[in-house]
Design goal:
This protein has 291 residues and is mainly beta. It is built from three helices and twelve strands; from the N terminus they run H-E-E-E-H-E-E-E-E-E-E-E-E-H-E. It has one domain: Porin (Beta Barrel).
């Protein structure tokens, strides 16, 4: 009897030890995702004056949502902590024609821009994916599993943007025109913050949903930030794209040089929502004992 108890204890401890270390065989994961992106800035948005301290919370515009695609590599340092490097390509846009707020509608600006982002983020999983050993309890055979694993993430990255607007049927680059007499950079920093949820199909395959807000260090993703400037000496294209205002009756003085064109209270930001398929590379041979 004593020998049987010792044998059972050894088997149980061995099983727990192997299972506790099983994540080390699956530390490298690749992901591919499709999703959407939305812009939070000066153009378009809600039917009221834009937010002062954070562009976007009330300025989210579903009509301006555009597709995005991403690839990534995730490295697990423990069952609950990982780092992911990813590249995401999407498009953001905004259009004052989509709002009924009088000032924005009269301003009549619009834009679109490709966003090409390369970022690294740290991820924390409170509850890890778990595919444990088979157990028998009161004559019932089962398997300890946990398919769902939510996580939080924060990181840093860089992105390229290139705002354009339509003029006479063609999409023209706005940065070279210096519509506000500002020579801004087309590369900026982004701070990703968000949450995600993964569903494990088996030890190697999973699907996930990740939603992340990107704070940025630029206010010119949409080419709008400060005030109107005098472009009367420029060519017709520059004049129009700097100030295509409708200037209806009573609104002609809203867009004179020196009047507010955008808001400098906060920088632009954008959101990525990505549905992904993930695959973990198996390092060595993973065999969980059964009892």
């Amino acid at each position: 009897m004593k020998n049987n108890l010792i044998s059972i204890s050894i088997i149980i401890l061995s099983t727990l030890s192997v299972d506790a270390q099983s994540w080390k065989f699956l530390t490298n994961e690749f992901s591919f995702g499709l999703g959407a992106t939305s812009f939070l800035g000066d153009l378009g948005g809600a039917n009221r004056i834009g937010s002062r301290n954070l562009k976007g919370i009330r300025d989210f515009d579903f009509n301006a949502t555009r597709p995005a695609i991403s690839i990534g590599y995730r490295k697990f340092f423990s069952p609950n902590l990982s780092a992911k490097a990813g590249f995401t390509l999407g498009q953001v846009s905004g259009d004052d024609a989509l709002t009924e707020e009088p000032y924005r509608q009269n301003r009549n600006l619009h834009f679109k821009s490709t966003i090409a982002e390369l970022a690294v983020q740290i991820e924390y999983f409170p509850f890890r994916e778990y595919f444990g050993h088979i157990y028998r309890s009161n004559g019932v055979v089962g398997k300890r599993v946990n398919h769902l694993s939510p996580y939080l993430f924060a990181g840093i990255g860089g992105f390229f943007y290139n705002p354009k607007a339509k003029y006479q049927g063609n999409w023209e680059k706005l940065r070279p025109l210096k519509t506000e007499n500002i020579d801004y950079n087309s590369i900026s920093l982004a701070i990703p913050l968000g949450l995600g949820l993964k569903y494990a199909i088996d030890k190697q395959w999973s699907i996930g949903l990740e939603v992340g807000l990107r704070y940025t260090t630029t206010d010119y993703i949409d080419d709008v930030s400060t005030e109107y400037v005098d472009k009367s000496g420029s060519d017709a294209k520059t004049q129009y794209l700097s100030n295509p205002a409708l200037n209806n009756e009573g609104q002609t003085n809203w867009t004179l040089p020196g009047q507010q064109r955008g808001s400098t209270q906060s920088n632009d930001s954008y959101v990525f929502a990505i549905l992904s398929v993930n695959y973990k590379l198996l390092r060595g041979r993973l065999n969980l004992p059964k009892f």
